[in-house]
Amino acid sequence: MKAQTSLMMEFSVDKENKKIFVKREFAAPLSRVWAAWTEKELLDQWWAPKPWKAETKSMDFREGGTWIYAMVGPEGEKHWSCAEFHSITPYISFSGKDAFCDEEGNIDHNMPESVWSNEFQETGDNTTVFIAITYEKDSDIEKILEMGFKEGLSAAMENLDELLV
């Protein structure tokens, strides 16, 4: 079944404050959207833009825990990332640091690192996710956008629409 295409998505860049803001609506209840963002079995089904796939190596969704995963390309190439969870308020929000890394989770300090804050709000039959991503430098935002972050995230959100149908 084809996912709805009329769902709201806003993407804005605030270079002065080194932030990217995303607001995305999903046609599903809060419990299903929260699970899709916090359970590795579900994240692996939608996090990467097609034809790429997400593959979790390990995930410990708790404050101080980490998620180490790879974006796996069509030829089998792997690009590793990790997230360290800072705060979690179930069904309301979670935040953490996101970075590129190697397979063991060692951060690549030559690549942009960011702090993500994700908030979830249920309205009727829909759930809206509010994302604020903070970078250390303007150049980090420019680099991530040049790498196709906006397009990749938009495609991943469409994958999540399909998963939630």
Would you give an account of this structure?
The protein is an alpha+beta fold and 165 residues long. It contains 4 helices and 8 strands; from the N terminus they run ββααββββββαα. The protein has helices at residues 30-38, 40-46, 138-146, 149-164; strands at 9-14, 19-26, 53-59, 66-72, 78-89, 93-100, 114-123, 126-135. The chain has an 8-stranded antiparallel β-sheet. The longest helix is centred in the last third of the chain and has 16 residues, at 149-164. It is globular.
List descriptors.
165 residues, eight-stranded antiparallel sheet, globular
Major sheet details: 8 strands, antiparallel
Averaged pLDDT: 95
The unreliable regions are none
User: Hey, roughly how much beta strand do the residues contain?
Assistant: 35-45%
Radius of gyration, in Å, reads 15 Å
State the distance separating the first and last CA atoms.
Answer: 7 Å
Describe the structure concisely.
The protein is α+β, with helices and mostly antiparallel strands. It is built from 4 helices and 8 strands, in the order E-E-H-H-E-E-E-E-E-E-H-H. The protein has helices spanning 30-38, 40-46, 138-146, 149-164, and strands at residues 9-14, 19-26, 53-59, 66-72, 78-89, 93-100, 114-123, 126-135.
Task: Spell out the blueprint of helices and strands.
Elements lengths: L8 E6 L4 E8 L3 H9 L1 H7 L6 E7 L6 E7 L5 E12 L3 E8 L13 E10 L2 E10 L2 H9 L2 H16 L1
Helix pairs in contact: 1-2
